[in-house]
Design goal:
The longest helix is centred in the N-terminal third of the chain and has 18 residues. This protein has a seven-stranded mixed β-sheet, sandwiched between helices. By secondary structure, it is α/β, with parallel strands linked by helices. Helix 2 crosses helix 9. The protein starts with 5 loop residues before the first helix and ends with a strand. The chain is globular. Helix content is 38%, strand content 20%. The protein has one domain: Vaccinia Virus protein VP39 (Rossmann fold, 3-Layer(aba) Sandwich), CATH 3.40.50.150.
Length: 262
């Protein structure tokens, strides 16, 4: 039997943001999109590499005149096309995507941990930037608070260990710290304009998902909130506060990022 090629391999991974731990991944994705919008270069064009099932593309798309999405998974693209019928989508590996078009904004959200050659993929993405363009690169943070806690608890041997879920469901090949992310970007010959983090996270993804769905969000249950204060959506406030706290402590966040130019 011939060895499975890279595109066939990508089709085997079942993880999709809109389907798996969707409460937390939806919140995280929303704030990843907000971080991208805070650093965007104008509103003319966006290339989303890869677009996955379109969850993040749908948040970003209203802010740009032209949006193009690329993904290697046909099953994920089917979901994206259903969600965004007016967006142009292409089924391809990033390394094999060809176009004469250049873009002012390119997002690469949670992809470098998956690919065979992250430096080559960064170089490829940068070749699609306009002269004024910016490449927004996000990866999961191996040193996030929940992973440091897991090492102390003994459920991870070290922060950069990949779990069976990471490898078999999500298709991760490596983990990243801010130092190793910046090292790959520099090796690709690119310039780092800013770095940061998205969402202060102290629990694992399944625990965060459960907490958002089942947490005591009303002050009468002695959960979040302030007794006697005006009633608010404390769940939404918790998420907003976790995003704001993460800006101050990027080394603790679920996601780390770099804003990159040629």
């Amino acid at each position: 039997m011939s060895e499975m090629n890279e595109k066939e391999l990508q089709e085997t991974f079942s993880w999709a943001r809109s389907k798996m731990f969707s409460d937390y991944n939806g919140v995280l994705g929303y704030y990843q999109a907000q971080a991208c919008l805070e650093h965007r270069r104008g509103d003319k064009s966006l290339l989303d590499l890869p677009c996955g099932d379109g969850t993040l593309t749908s948040i970003l798309a209203p802010f740009f005149d032209r949006v193009v999405g690329v993904d290697a998974s046909g099953q994920h693209l089917a979901l994206a096309r259903e969600c965004l019928p007016d967006v142009e989508f292409h089924e391809a590996l990033i390394e094999e995507f060809e176009t004469d078009e250049q873009f002012d904004n390119i997002t690469m959200l949670n992809i470098l941990e998956h690919v065979v050659d992250p430096v080559g993929v960064l170089h490829k993405a940068a070749s699609l930037l306009s002269d004024r363009g910016i490449l927004l690169v996000h990866v999961p943070n191996a040193n996030a608070v929940n992973r440091r806690l897991a090492v102390l608890m003994g459920t991870l041997s070290d922060c950069e260990e990949l779990s069976p879920f990471d490898i078999q469901v999500a298709g991760h090949r490596r983990s990243y710290t801010q130092d190793t992310l910046c090292a790959d970007i520099k090796e690709a010959g690119l310039k780092i304009r800013a770095t940061g983090g998205v969402f202060y996270k102290s629990l694992s993804t399944p625990q965060m998902d459960w907490f958002l769905s089942n947490g005591l969000w009303d002050e009468g249950g002695f959960g979040w909130g302030r007794v006697g204060a005006e009633k608010q959506d404390w769940k939404a406030e918790f998420c907003r506060a976790s995003y704001e706290l993460g800006k101050r402590h990027p080394e603790d966040c679920n996601i780390i990022y770099a804003c990159v130019t040629r």
